[in-house]
Fold these 3 entries.
Entry 1:
Amino acid sequence: MFNSRILTKYTLLLGQDENSVIESFTASVDRKFISLMSLSSDGCIYETLIPIRPTDPEKNQTLVRSLLLKAVVSGNTRNGVALTALDQDHIAVLGSPQAASKECLSVWNIKFQTLQTSKELPQGTSGQLWYYGENLFMLHGKSLTVIPYKCEVSSLAGALGKLKHGQDPGAHVMPRFVNWETPQGCGLGFQNSEQSRRIEDSEKHIEVEVRKFLALKQTPDFHTVIGDTVTGLLERCKAEPSFYPRNCLMQLIQTHVLSYSLCPDLMEIALIKKDVQLLQLCLQQFPDIPESVTCACLKIFLSIGDDSLQETDVSMESVFDYSNSVHDEKMEEQTEILQNGFSPEEDKCSNCDQELNKKPQDETKESTSCPVVPKRAALLNAILHSAYSETFLLPHLKDIPAQHITLFLKYLYFLYLKCSENATMTLPGIHPPTLNQIMDWICLLLDANFTVVVMMPEAKRLLINLYKLVKSQISVYSELNKIEVSFRELQKLNQEKNNRGLYSIEVLELF
């Protein structure tokens, strides 16, 4: 509360990890911003910038936090965790760095992402930490412990251990860090390390400046500045391949003012880096992505390994729970009365019955289990939601390998089976694919690659299932058309009535 007459309230969004809990927090103030740093239950430290002069003080505003330091303490730590700011570049953290280690007091340089010093605390703490007058105060066991600590000027030399300290003339101290000016062994390796640290510092500085600008949002040329900033960052990415400020780019994309035509190099660089998280965000935000770029994204989404996906943070809002026990019980009870176009037991083609009856257990397994991991499913759902023109999309779909096309078709078939489990023919979730999108992409993939997929033995059962799917859809839409015509005739009869005041009972028979 900087003004005694105005109380400003904020809502802090925790991001994708909604289950995380803030265990400790600290704040510092400069001329324009309040820097709120929080230690979350996942062991990471996040930062939120709050403008001192808000645009609408009396309105409840929403804030988004950004990752500041990763894996500072163990995510399993529940006691003795604390966080305090020493100055604008240094913070002190109290907690266990690993699950099995003892509690430690650590001082971090947040500007250069480096650990300055650490002290083990064998007697444990109560999770209380203060800093005043260049002294750290904490409860260690049953005693109040005071540790003098003075923060040095934050610089690249200090972070790399090259900062010279005053020493006695006759003293000889072994250096704690490598002397980068006189490297031993391969000099090229040390030069690359120093260069990478400088680039990392540059990216961190840019990210802080971008967050400050986005927190204000008071400039009249906001859209122009965003476009110029992205253009400048992409030009430097081309000139320096090791420079890739992905956090800044993701924050700028989420402003909803960019498009593919405004920054076409953005997705091109993301494709080269195979940054699936950034590509997914672009597919969700950009309305004018060319079909060739959409297919390039699809190739990466289908070819990337499951191990790489596990380490990637993607949006999962379009993916529903894959558990099938509840749905299977309901389907067994409603098989005779609920008919939504497709049922694995229904088929009028005798040849298809012969093929499918050979391995009924395998068919049941295919029908109930998702062929891709949830993170890959989230990426493929972004493709399903993207806009396209069939004429321009089909030629590019032919360049995708047949095994990847088969995998995508299996996933689409799985989604259709999930749609058929309820009367609304929709999928659960915040923003799931629609039935029309699923059917359209099935037709697109088969039109572009049918001659190749039909030659694959492992795709035979899938093609038979897709044949039944399309056949059932034709039957459903035919019946819906009959009902629509009947209701139109009924509407005409109601419009021709003149005796509205009379009571009558009418029966409409549908055949």
Note: The two ends are 71 Å apart (CA to CA).
Entry 2:
Amino acid sequence: MNTKVTSRDIQEIITKLTSDKAKPRDEGIKLLNTWLGGERSIGFCRFLSDRSSMLEPNEIPHSESWPFLVKILIQCLSLEISSSKKRLPKLNFAKTLRIVVQRAEDDRFSGKNFPLLPVARVLFNHVWDVLKDVPSFQSEYSVILRHLLAVTEYRFHIRKRVYSNLVLIYMEKVEASLSNENIGQLNPKEEVFRFTLTLQSLLENPPGDIPDELREDMVKGFVGIFLM
């Protein structure tokens, strides 16, 4: 059933996601996922894409737009991570952000090109902050990172320091996944493939020239990888 989405539906999601309490935020993630899955996702995504296309270049995104939804989800994820000191952060939060990023860029829905441009830098910063501290999110966030890097208009918004840090951390991940310590893991080849794929995406899509201060560290990183 292709349920028609309304402004009230969007506002209900936003209200829950912006709550200062964990339970409403959990409910907001679940509610958002009901709109992102199945046939009803078509109407939901087209609604947000149409509203996003009305934004002027320097206009602050309103609540019925992809950039605003992404920004709210980033805030939600930051709260979830900071409040989960004695447990792993809930993976469905990371999955939801990944799905929203992918849906926003889906060619099946009408709308403006590069709808996430207003939050591209914020997204890159958030991806780095999470990847360095939350290993359980690395699979979902690697997908988000590769998706953003593939778009020229987005990757030029990544700060060089963040780019350098991401290159180095993925070099470390590739080297660690090739080491003897990981031989006993269930899917070591799959892990190596995912890390290598993201590292390749970073190296092929720098924000301009590769920073000079990064080159020496890259050489050391490659030496370590090839010695595995």
Note: The mean pLDDT is 88.
Entry 3:
Amino acid sequence: MDALKDVNLYLSELQHLTYLDLSRLHIHAVPEFLGSMQRLRYLSLQGGEGDAIPIPSSSISNLTNLRALFLDDFTFTNLTASTWLAPLSSLQYLGLKDMDLPMNLYKVMNLVYLDLSRNQITGSIPESLQPRTPNLRSLLLNDNFMNGSLPSSLGNLKFLSKFDVSNNKLSGKIPSTIWNLSSLEWLHLNNNKFQEKLPSFLSNMKNLILLDVGENQRSVNLDLSNNFLSGSIPTGISFLSKLVGLNFSYNNLSGKIPERIGDMRSLESIDLSHNHLSGAIPRSMIDLNFLSHLNLSYNNLSESIPIENQFQTLNDPLSYTGNQYLSGAPLPKYCLGDGSHHVPTFEGYEDEDRENDQLGKALFYSIVSFGFATGFWVIIGFLYFKNNWRYACFEYVEKV
């Protein structure tokens, strides 16, 4: 590949290089000179799309000063991933996407960032994860095939700020210890099979607020969509005053939307669609001045949609559709119900409009017809009384 030849030609002698990013080249072979670049602290490579590019075990494993390594769409030869990476004792940031790796990679690392997304990992998250990675801040395990339940030891990762296990097959209960993570800012548990009632694992949310939001002024994103969660949304969730994203869509939640949800003034996005929520949209939601995305569709909500403040901009009908007893702009004024909600007819007004429309058409055609007839006879009259005009006209017609 020409790109790889250029890389070998111009970079092979840069032995003092500390930062190397070849991720946009989509290389089809790992450059041989990499193993000799002992001073490298950052390395990012991306394999050719659709190919599993082999990595010689003697190349990157020699880079003992690496602090950050990001590989995408490669495969290991001869040695297992854990053995291959064992010499990299200084590594803190590790991103290995689309590489079909085992979960036991954590055993040889003292990482602060670990991305094993899209690796077809099966099995469950090990209970002994925390002792090996006590300083872990980001753990990304999304888009795999993991099953089982989340280990309670996750609550010991006191520095964890981003945790993503979305798009797996995890089930059971979400451990309450996860709400003891005082640095947690980003939580994605969506598209799994968690089954339980919301209050059972949100009971410690107030503690999370005091540690994470109140004192440290951090923002939190909570995504629990596409599971089998039931029960009602706990009223205590309103204490998460710094929450900027809330997504409980595609679950089996029932009851009402908490009346004090308007206290969550930092919310920018709310998605509660595809549940069984009932009652009115809380009036307090008009105080959510930062709210830019709202989806309450396909529930059992009723009464009128608020029209004040931020709701004047949240005017997409799709955000409210599927709530047959909900009314008000941007929905039609009257919504179809089960018989108790009468939809008035406007037959009288329709008949009057139809008559006015017919009268207007008749007047239009009369004016057009009169104008055409008048013009036609004026031309005929001129031709009849003006012989020279008549001769010139017929001569022109004959030539044509």
Note: Residues 347-385 form the longest helix (39 residues).
